[in-house]
Batch of 2 targets.
Target 1
Amino acid sequence: MADLLVKDLKLRLGDNEILKSVSLSVTPGQVVALLGPSGSGKTTLLRAIAGLEVPHGGSISIGESVFFDAARGIELPAEQRGLGLVFQSYALWPHRTVFDNVAYGLKLRKTPAAEIKTRVEKTLAQIGLGHLAARYPHQLSGGQQQRVAIARALVYEPPVLLLDEPLSNLDAKLREEARAWLRTLIVTLGLSAIHVTHDQVEAMAIADRIILLDAGVVTQEGAPTALYNEPGTLFTAEFMGSNNRLDGKLVEISGGRASMEVFGERITGMARTKAAAGSNATGIIRIERVRCASSAGPNRLKMELKAPMYLGERWELVFAREHLTVRAYASSPLKPGEHYVEFPAEALWVF
Ligand SMILES: Nc1ncnc2c1ncn2[C@@H]1O[C@H](COP(=O)(O)OP(=O)(O)OP(=O)(O)O)[C@@H](O)[C@H]1O
Ligand SMILES: [Mg+2]
């Protein structure tokens, strides 16, 4: 099996340029998360790959099989691409049993009845729903319905599964269980998948690679650890993780470090900007990297602790000073009042 390749894809809806030259690849056996804020074009991209939207530029192919090529005028209909698509709103047929929901697509394709039976039973067994084949969707839990929707895509044995926020209808706890289950299923069956989500934790948990989309453009792609630990842009830094943001004036850049002035203090971090001294600068630091200190020191700001919040496994502390709010975690609560908040230089990115 070859890679799915999307090259320079451009797509317009009405007057809006939705995808602006998007390129990506999916290697067999890989789960790729397509991550981005609402309206960034994730669903549109997935639909274009499936053959439900027509781009006006670029190409989509798997090995020798060309799905779309604007330059050569090739456009393969959705049913001939053989990709499995799972929508956010499971879209199950309410008056068909689980078995018939999964079998429906094969029937449309005139697959012989005996083969349908074998394939549907195998797929239902794979997703652990073999015993529910005779039930109707309304007799299933949300999590079970979502599995049926996935079974319906798996039954075609597609080279790539296209999943559009398949877990977003589940409540938080079920979602965490389902993402582990889904990742295991995809890896065990040796499938590959594009998993659309706007939840960065879900993307990191489920994917080998993340493609981060911003307004129809890929801003960064790479392993989850790379996007989380080495963001190349302010957008990536802010989108991944839970962050604090420091605004100040750039003082100097030297040796890969950038210093900014905040409340008259010099705060130094990793330089992610080439701007001139005196420009506005933005510092980003993950909540879990902020430290609390009892005395003044380098890269520390005096701030006032508002009410500590108990989160079960840790405390969340909210510090304030004029317009600046900084959140930090601690293993025990501190007393409200004045404290020093430290921003370790290697954990602070200055854009
Ligand atoms: N038929 C249409 N005509 C014009 N613009 C459209 C049409 N459908 C979608 N759009 C616009 O295209 C952009 C991308 O939409 P898309 O559904 O791909 O976003 P998304 O990243 O999937 O967002 P979400 O996370 O909310 O699902 C949005 O700005 C949307 O308003
Ligand atoms: Mg969408």
Target 2
Amino acid sequence: MTNTAFDCRMCGHCCEGKGGIVVSPADLQRLCAYLRMEADDVIAAYGERVNGKLKIRCGDDGYCIFFRQGKGCIVHEGKPSICKAWPFFRGNIEDAASLALAKDFCPGINPDISHADFASQGIAYLKQENLLADDARTEANALILPDRR
Ligand code: SF4
Ligand code: SF4
């Protein structure tokens, strides 16, 4: 039987903290369609520019503005690629030490998964879900895996 690398426990830990949720142009389109709002309105209501990239703002509680305690993500189907991709970020795929830290942070990552199995399952998932990125100006660096497309 396959040793599954990841099974989200819905703890919300990864939705807490500022500045990490990049919204690429394709993400913005998806979010607009989900929210039935124009891009300018979505950006004004929920976005911020950080070093040239569009990101989702944090609420006063320190969580992503789309996170609700007890409910989780209120834009689940329209959420950005970076959210769909976690924990299969470049750092965790390329570096065993980074994966070890991620296991401490995220209870959904199988603590027994080897780095090699995590990486191969992660790359397969990112490809299958079309989550890999290539434009460092507008997309999340964590989704740019050179030579993996
Ligand atoms: S930290 Fe891990 S287990 Fe918790 S919600 Fe995020 S992905 Fe799921
Ligand atoms: S968009 Fe949803 S999944 Fe992504 S950080 Fe915000 S609440 Fe979490």
